[in-house]
Amino acid sequence: MTFIEPGPEFGQLFTTFEHTAFRLEVRENYNAPREVESFRRFRAGEPVDLSWAESWFSMIRQATAKGRRFARVRVVSLPLSDYSRFGLLAARFTTEAGEDIRYLHRDVAEQFGLPDHDYWLFDSRKLVRMHFGEEDRFVGAEVIEDAEAIVQHNYWRDAARHHAMSRDEFAAKHDQRDN
């Protein structure tokens, strides 16, 4: 097992995969330092500036232009937390950049035995389990090489994507204010 701390080595995962990068998100809150001000403005009902995420959007546009695919499923509880509503707003821009973002109700995820941890799966063969510390801050990721675990996470990816709805469909049903 290899542990990767946040930083350049972790970022390199997103530029070195060949075909697909998939993420399962299961947390109700994330505390990413770059988005704190945008989230504060969102909660205050003020205009939200997502310029801090432009490098992410640009990377997705470049990757998808080359035929590489970014996808994720967000497992959410209802009613949506403030952070999930903020994520739904931000996902509009990420989706426009080319990422396929879908939403899955937590009770459905539990029915299918989806895990209670976030992970990235690159090219269906590189499993990266994310770890979070105090105050929901990302502290790093563990690269898992166990074949059985990789197969299980591929199954969870497929089940999550199959039962989830697109960002736009979910937004139309659950968060009229921030579509």
UniProtKB/TrEMBL annotation:
<dbReference type="Pfam" id="PF21806">
    <property type="entry name" value="DUF6879"/>
</dbReference>
<dbReference type="InterPro" id="IPR049244">
    <property type="entry name" value="DUF6879"/>
</dbReference>
<feature type="domain" description="DUF6879">
    <location>
        <begin position="9"/>
        <end position="171"/>
    </location>
</feature>
<protein>
    <recommendedName>
        <fullName>DUF6879 domain-containing protein</fullName>
    </recommendedName>
</protein>
